[in-house]
Design brief:
There is one protein chain. The strands form three sheets. Strands 1, 2, 5, 6 and 7 form a five-stranded mixed beta sheet that branches. Strands 10-9-8-11-12 form a five-stranded mixed beta sheet, with no helix packed on it. The chain has a two-stranded antiparallel sheet with strand order 3-4. It folds into three domains: 80 residues, no CATH class; 48 residues; 72 residues. It has four helices and twelve strands; from the N terminus they run βββββββαααβββαββ. By secondary structure, it is an alpha/beta fold. It starts with 14 loop residues before the first strand and ends in a 7-residue tail after the last strand. Helix 1 crosses helix 2 and helix 1 packs across helix 3.
């Protein structure tokens, strides 16, 4: 038999709901931690001695067409390790739930990160507003920069083509990973020496597909140069 849905099922793990009330176009939910101890970030010792409490305001995923603000009652603990320089510390939570000093829950921050990757700054902020997510274009870009780019394997099959900084005046070289169908590098010109310098640092590359109009780059032993009509088509 399925369990009944309670308000605590709608908030991040490790918290329980104590009170909720509407506040215009948003819902405010008061929550508190279910844990009885916390680990000191200075020495790693576990403490049960509560020093004080304060309210921490967090943005969370929207519910029922309204944005959500979590008002978390957070405890300050006394460190029980006598040699620790940090005598009082704020309660810490699991990184998958809430990071220190964060103003958004981890699940909302993950959604903001994906919006920034997919749509960028202003388009992402416009779409986030329709999703009732309180983020600006600067916030989206800041989250993407903070998390960094995902690690991808180094390319082994690439395509080289030229592209225009300014048509009929200045051209550069674009290098694409043909296995993953994505650009990986932009070179400032389309000279063979520039491509040679870049290839000399990428010894794992086995196959190079080039446009017939691009000068022949340097070819180390063991590499196969395959001329093509447009190696970047469809990327």
């Amino acid at each position: 038999m399925a369990k009944a849905l309670s308000p605590s099922n709608l908030i991040p793990a490790g918290f329980v709901t104590t009170e909720a009330w509407p506040d215009g176009d948003r819902t405010t939910i008061h929550i508190k931690s279910t844990g009885s101890t916390s680990r000191c970030p200075g020495c790693g010792a576990t403490s049960r001695r509560v020093h004080s409490r304060y309210n921490r305001h967090l943005f969370d995923l929207p519910i029922a067409g309204k944005s959500v603000v979590l008002q978390a009652s957070v405890r300050r603990f006394r460190c029980e390790f006598v040699t620790c320089s940090r005598r009082i510390f704020a309660e810490r939570f699991d990184a998958s739930v809430l990071m220190p000093w964060a103003r958004r829950t981890a699940r909302l921050d993950g959604l903001v990160h994906h919006l920034g990757l997919a749509l960028g700054g202003r388009p992402g902020a416009s779409f986030a507003k329709r999703l009732l997510l309180p983020v600006s274009n600067d916030t989206l870009l800041r989250v993407v920069r903070r998390r960094g780019s995902p690690q991808v394997p180094r390319p082994t099959v690439i395509g080289i083509d030229d592209w225009a900084w300014r048509r009929n005046h200045r051209y550069g070289t674009i290098i694409c990973d043909l296995e993953r169908r994505r650009p990986i590098c932009l070179l400032p010109d389309r000279e063979a020496a520039t491509a040679q310098a870049w290839l000399s640092q990428q010894l794992q590359i086995a196959i190079v597909s080039r446009d017939r109009g691009v000068p022949m780059p340097w070819q180390p032993p063991g590499r196969f140069l395959m001329p093509s009509r447009s190696p970047t088509a469809g990327i």
